[in-house]
Prior knowledge:
The protein has one domain: tt1808, chain A (Alpha-Beta Complex), CATH 3.90.1570.10. The chain has 192 residues and is of the alpha+beta class. The protein contains 4 helices and 10 strands, in the order H-E-E-H-E-E-E-H-E-E-E-E-E-H. It is globular.
Amino acid sequence: MSVVSPKRFTLDEYHQLIALGFLTEGDRLELTRGELVQMAAKGTPHSACNTALLYELLPALMGRAVVRNQEPVIMPLDSEPEPDFAIVRLRVDNYRNSHPLPDDIYLLIEVFDSTLTYDQTTKLAVYAENNIQHYWIVNLLADRLERYSQSYRNGQQDCGYRHLEISLRNEVVPLPNFEDVKLDLARVFVTS
């Protein structure tokens, strides 16, 4: 009896598929632990929140960090997610030669209006196992910001974050590694 198993892709194979035109931006795919994952379409609240975050983060971090919006980051264990925001260190090549690696990343932010379980489990584990120290989920359904910090790895399969802090839509929070920069969540949680 033969066993059926999905084809897993390495980062190099994934990049080859893109270079050859087999995968395009319109496919809305991410590589997660070697598997191609179809990403959900973004609803209006998600888009409004992304725009609000972009307007808050760009001027606050200008000249101090690069704010990437829905662009890939490389997780060496065969993942290349496209978080809603990646705040990464400044680099001379401005990331023309490669996407940011874990050592480049200050903070990853996902905005949730339809993918919460995936963001809180799979993506959280991928980020933790790659030593991303700060991961935030803007939870639009619960009107709160989930701030995960201090990733840990306790054996091969046990990865996560030591701390979870919940901030409400009316609070002001500091950005990790930029404690003088405060994010007013009332400006992020756009009301209808």
